[in-house]
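Go through the following before class.
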Amino acid sequence: MSIVDPNWLGVVTFQAFIDFMSHETADTDTADQVIASFKILAGDKDHITMYELYHELPPDQAEYCMAQMVPNTSSNSMPGALDYISFPTVLCGESDL
């Protein structure tokens, strides 16, 4: 409450509520945004390779992704390809992060 009612008046204005919620949700990514980001990194393919992850991300983030992503089993993927489309669900167990 101290954030939205800093004067401790016991009320929250609509504008204070909107400002607070805008700030709270500004850094959240939806599953679709995460997938779209990986699609760009993968060059518009439906899978991403370990090389692409290491090339585009810091090593610790690339290793995390590789540990969490499942192999891509589509007929047009190469051996060792990873499924970035299911990645948000693997991370959170839901469709939005």
Q: What stands out?
A: Residues 53 and 62 are 5 Å apart (CA to CA).
